[in-house]
Amino acid sequence: MKLLRVPEIVVPVGEEIARHGGLVIVRSPNGEVCRYTIGNKTGRILQISRSSQDHSRFEFTLLESRKHPALSLTDFEYLHTGEAFANRLAYLGGLVMHGSAISYEGKGIVFSAPSGTGKSTHAGLWKQQYGERVVHINDDKPAIRFNEESPVVYGTPWSGKTDTNSNNSAPLKAIVFLEQASENQIQPLSVDDALMHIYRETVRPFYDEALGMKVLEAAERLIQSIPVFLLKCTISSQAVELVKNTMQW
Length: 249
Hints:
Blueprint (H helix, E strand, L loop, with lengths): L1 E5 L8 E6 L2 E5 L5 E6 L6 E7 L6 E6 L9 H19 L3 E2 L3 E5 L2 E6 L6 H12 L3 E5 L4 E5 L2 E5 L14 E12 L4 E4 L2 H10 L8 H17 L2 E6 L3 H11 L2
Parallel strand pairs: 1-6, 9-13, 13-15
Antiparallel strand pairs: 2-3, 3-4, 4-5, 5-6, 7-11, 8-9, 8-10, 11-12, 12-13, 14-15
């Protein structure tokens, strides 16, 4: 992993495979994927990332003179190291989920939902209600890998706005997707719905079909290994009790 700042960035050699506005994606002759952003006003390349075919090497270069209105160099580092980690993990058969992961008495659970739904708040209620029996693993992007056929959830340094993470892991026993509602109700998801929900909340590059298939395969393994639920809920201790009782913990 390298992060560089240079006075000028040249167009990489290779086949253009996608273009979205100012974002251009090129595959080089050696299989390396390059993504670069062109400035609207200057036409100069503002930044470029290069990833090896197996995602084991990643390099990010930023134009030295670029002044981003919102992101600092540390922010760029946070975003792109997270991206590189997620891609490499997907290549190895795991995945990074958008969710809040905790362990309760050593058993892992991931609460997932679109941003703003209340998954961090719900996970916090578990800690508030059960104290030391609950450990926060990661509040935004936990990693999931398989130990033989059993999934394990791991903490990562990429934990979003709350910065709630730990260097811990736990056997993953369930994934719960949240929806806000006026009453608490939980139900298991069908295979098709579980797959759709998991795939929607995983970190993956839209431009790499092979890597997307690996993420899909990992999601299918998850569904075969653990239950996946939909929790329609209020943000309350009653919702926490409902999940706990459903898990029979």
